[in-house]
Amino acid sequence: MHAARHTPLPYVANRAVLTDATDLIARFGSEAAIEAAARADRSRDLGNVVHFCRWRQVERLVVLLTASEVIGTVH
Which superkingdom heads the taxonomic lineage of this protein's source (predicted)? Predict the structure, then answer.
């Protein structure tokens, strides 16, 4: 038996996080996660912790949505 690889699934706070993730994917394609990270960095630099955390959530969700392999349980 081999150990299962554990990939934590991102927390999705609300529908707006999903909307932002899909919008970034539509606008930036494979660069969407980089754009989300840049927005998080800008928010951090401005001292806006709430938006920093939100854009990090979006970044993680973009990575999950654009992954080429299935992550998590498949039913």
Answer: Bacteria
